[in-house]
Amino acid sequence: MNIPFNKPYLTGKESHYLYDAVSTGKLSGNGKYTQLCQSHLENTYGFEKCLLTTSCTDALEMAAILINIEPGDEVIMPSYTFVSTANAFVLRGAKIVFADSRSDHPGFDEATLENLITDKTKAIVPVHYAGVACDMDCIMKIADKHNLFVIEDAAQAIDSYYVFKDGSKKALGSIGHLAAFSFHETKNIIAGEGGMLVVNDNQFAKRAEIIWEKGTNRSAFFRGEVDKYGWVDVGSSFLPSELISSFLWAQIENIQSIQNKRKVLWDLYYKLLQVWANDNEIKMPFVPNFATNNAHMFYLICKNVKQRTVIIDTLRSANVHAVFHYLSLHKSPFYSDKHDGRDLPYTDNYSECLVRLPLFYELSTEEIYHIVKVLLNCKFDG
Ligand SMILES: *Cc1c(COP(=O)(O)O)cnc(C)c1O
């Protein structure tokens, strides 16, 4: 048995829609499939406006342009995240103020947020790690009070929700002023490389389309709102071709079965590992009561780096590929000399102790039993 960390899942309809897109002769962006994907996701998740992009990285870069990030502006985000979360804002001259993670979850610790706000702060970028919500109610209240923009890095958070105190729910990505999703092959629904910007604050809607279309008002022209189109703002080539969106459409159509399957596998891991984890001082993934689980990731938090190394090595010798995750951005070669020097102990802890287990649609329950058996036989002493 050889179990990879991830295996991209194909629903079987991708080639059908790709063929259809090719035969219509319209291959560039913003055609039938782009619009199908966008309107379906808007209707399903209550997003105000969706624009497909070539990646989540691009969607974050669009967000940084939209909120007019200028040199010297400060943007608050967790240090435990992917480089693109920070890079998108650094490209426009922002200073990144890194926040620590929660003690019970790798997501952003909202309790530390208010102390990090200065008169230069322009935006907060919560990252919904593992598709598990940050405390959005708390973050939005702080943002409102200080007049800041909130951009959700929802790269991993498709089909996941924030649960309010009264029990009502809102989809992640529908709460901040802007949000960015990823359809990279490692995410729950995929397009190879792909992403999406969600615009919830209407003040950004028109300009988002212009930035998306290389700084032109071509979208308005195609709708017949203007009689010619030209260069009206900055922008870039952020929209994906119909080849990408037709592929994505097959995934979106099957999102519920993909999600159901992933949750079954996630729950099985949880059930089988709970006692063992407790006996070995290993922490299981935690989902706060204001969050739901979209089964993006199954991870364990080891008691130290030595224990994690034993787990990764033991699994590897059984041909199971488990991997660690982010290295603290505040200690990265690129940013360490720009960081303000604060210690971020939880970030460093997740950086050293978190390990992710294989989780993908075609992972069988038999394979999970095999992985669990290998874990239960790990020798942590000597
Ligand atoms: C995957 C990911 C990204 C980047 O997504 P791309 O589509 O590859 O650009 C950004 N942020 C987080 C938290 C991610 O997990």
Descriptive tags:
Aspartate Aminotransferase, domain 1, binds pyridoxal-5'-phosphate, Aspartate Aminotransferase, domain 2, alpha/beta, 382 residues, seven-stranded mixed β-sheet
Question: In summary, what is this structure?
Answer:
The protein has helices at residues 14-24, 32-45, 56-66, 83-90, 113-116, 136-146, 205-212, 218-222, 242-253, 255-279, 305-317, 345-353, 365-376, and strands at residues 49-53, 74-78, 95-99, 121-124, 149-153, 161-163, 169-171, 178-182, 195-199, 298-301, 354-357. With 382 residues, it is of the alpha/beta class. Bound molecules: pyridoxal-5'-phosphate.
Query: How does the helix and strand content classify structurally?
Result: alpha/beta
CATH H level of the largest domain: which superfamily? Type I PLP-dependent aspartate aminotransferase-like (Major domain)
Briefly, what CATH class of the largest domain?
Alpha Beta
Radius of gyration: 21 Å
Note the beta-strand portion: 5-15%
Description:
- The protein folds into two domains: 240 residues, 3-Layer(aba) Sandwich (Aspartate Aminotransferase, domain 2); 121 residues, Aspartate Aminotransferase, domain 1.
- The protein has 13 helices and eleven strands.
- A seven-stranded mixed sheet has the order 1-9-8-5-4-2-3, sandwiched between helices.
- α1 packs antiparallel against α9.
- The two termini are 28 Å apart.
- The model has no long low-confidence stretch (mean pLDDT 97).
- Bound molecules: pyridoxal-5'-phosphate (PLP).
- Pyridoxal-5'-phosphate binds next to α3 and α4.
